[in-house]
Specification:
By secondary structure, this protein is mostly beta strands. 8% of the residues lie in helices and 24% in strands. The two termini are 17 Å apart.
């Protein structure tokens, strides 16, 4: 099953939260590290099951 056919929505901005310090940031660029502490971030716009 192709999920992009079910929901073609693609956010223009990413909403990220740091896995360590919980700092949140909105960015048009894809982030992989927290700007506050340098730890890994997770994209809040990606649904979790």
């Amino acid at each position: 099953m192709r999920h992009n056919l079910i929901d073609p929505y693609t956010p223009g901005r990413g909403y990220y939260e740091c896995r360590t310090c919980t700092h949140r940031v909105v960015s048009e660029d894809r982030l992989t590290t927290c700007p506050a502490c340098g730890a890994g971030v997770r994209n809040l716009a990606v649904p979790r099951e």
